[in-house]
Amino acid sequence: MTSELLLDPQLKYWVLLPISVVMVVVGLLRSNLTYYLTSSKKLPEIKISRERQFLQRAVNFRENNRMISKHSFDQRQKYYLEKLNSNEFIAESEANNEPATNPLADPKMNEQMMGMLKGNMMNYIPQTLVMGWINYFFPGFVIMKLPFTLTTGFKQMLQSDVMTPDLNVRYVSAISWYFINFMGLKPVYSLLVGSESAEELMAQQHQQQQMNFTGPGGPKADRLFKGEAENIQILSHVAVFDDIIDRVLKIDI
């Protein structure tokens, strides 16, 4: 039989609620400080999104052109070759117009790396302080019992820092509650600052900083467009519907 505990009702006021409030406040403060400390100049999202979507459309045409007729293929091939070889769908930026240079000698690259370093520091330092605060004041605390049953596979996730192998898996330790908040505060952020800002907060919190293909250090958009234009130019079209009647009649039933 698994052990059962009688929890003090005051735990939710003096441990559970403070940890949750501190996690939310730290997340909001970190977001605002990161915004003011990083000075990255980004293109309007609509231009970058337009650029990516058009390139994806060209890729989809190249990979799935067998589903259209020869006439439609010729029209689309001509259209994509014309647009991919022009700058109409390329988001204008200094990075696209400058020649390739050594990233380590590029002052703009150094500035961007410094901005990323500041962002990483604003992510790690507050979370390290919060975790240290919880480990110092609430070591080994069991602060709540979940109102639903769970399998033993959740025991390691919910009962970190609690050395009781026979304890019911529904009990949650203080440090585990920190990790649960760390991973699942998106609905709270959505309620407080809106869904778009919540997405940005969670992206910062989980270190999902991905550079788009127009940024320094990665392939330039004009190169990707020209490469895709070359791929489309050498396409040979064979539609799956060509001679479909004859091929169906030849099938042995």
Quick summary:
It is a multi-pass membrane protein. The protein is mostly helical and 253 residues long.
Describe the structure.
The chain has 253 residues and is an all-alpha fold. It has one domain (11-140, 186-249). It has helices at 11-37, 45-64, 70-84, 94-97, 107-137, 155-158, 174-184, 186-193, 195-205, 221-233, 244-249, and strands at 142-145, 171-173. The protein has a two-stranded antiparallel ribbon with strand order 1-2. The protein is elongated. The chain starts with 10 loop residues before the first helix and ends with a helix.
Average of per-residue pLDDT values: 78
Structural class: mainly alpha
Biggest β-sheet strands, sense, barrel:
2 strands, antiparallel
Helix-strand pattern, N to C? Answer: HHHHHEHEHHHHH
Helix % is 55-70%
Subcellular location: Membrane
Membrane topology: Multi-pass membrane protein
GO cellular component, one term: EMC complex
Protein name: ER membrane protein complex subunit 3
Which helices and strands appear, and what pairs or packs with what?
Blueprint: H1 11-37, H2 45-64, H3 70-84, H4 94-97, H5 107-137, E1 142-145, H6 155-158, E2 171-173, H7 174-184, H8 186-193, H9 195-205, H10 221-233, H11 244-249
Antiparallel strand pairs: 1-2
Helix pairs in contact: 1-5, 1-7, 2-10, 3-10, 8-9
